[in-house]
Predict the structure.
Amino acid sequence: MGNIRPEIIWEHPDVVAVNKPSGWLSVPDRFDSQLPNLYAWLKEQYGEIFIVHRLDKDTSGLILFARHPAAHRWLCEQFFQHQVNKIYLGIVEGRVDFEEKTVSLAIAPDTKNPGKMRVHASGREATTRFQLVEAYTRHSLLRMMPTTGRTHQIRIHLQHMGFPLVADPLYGHGRPLMAAALYRSFRHNADERPLLARTALHAAVLEWKFPDGQLQRLEAPLPKDMKAAIYQLRKTSFGISGHKKAAP
């Protein structure tokens, strides 16, 4: 199921938390059940496992699965009621023109492009709060906190603002981030490997409550590709100062 394996970062009698690598599906593909997916991988280890929420294939980071029906019910209810705090980190195209911003725009399926969503007044309410973490020469690192959980919500809101995620094939230009392109004296090298070849989005933090009121917070560290990209962006940001703390 691929070279980079998922990592179980927290295990509890009710819940298991996984750090999903980019390229893995959250659940089996409808047409090819052999594609790497967390549900099948966890079933091999736990037998019974229940899907609570999902991450896009390209998105890395933290995802929860329930281990029995009762846990599935109360976890799904918290997600449905928007009571789960979610924090994502993402690298976007362009230097953003804000320190913090909240976007509330309804989202609906794009009838002309199956598989995509769009901002549309007839859609479902979607709200995302954005915070600038670091600014680079032509990119920005953002902290993103969706209070709703619509399909592609963060990606669409960023596109609407004019700051799509790096390498996003649906809502951006889809081109990978290359180290050479960050330098002033850029010369194309056909042999260069990209720093980031997938949508630059990582689910960093989840915070929820158990039925007894106990608060649980988990964090998933940034994967190597995003760390490498941030390192190069810092290194090649000429005249940029005032970097902020990059932790979730």
In short: The first helix runs from residue 38 to 46. Residues 1-81 form a domain with the Alpha-Beta Plaits fold (CATH 3.30.70.580).
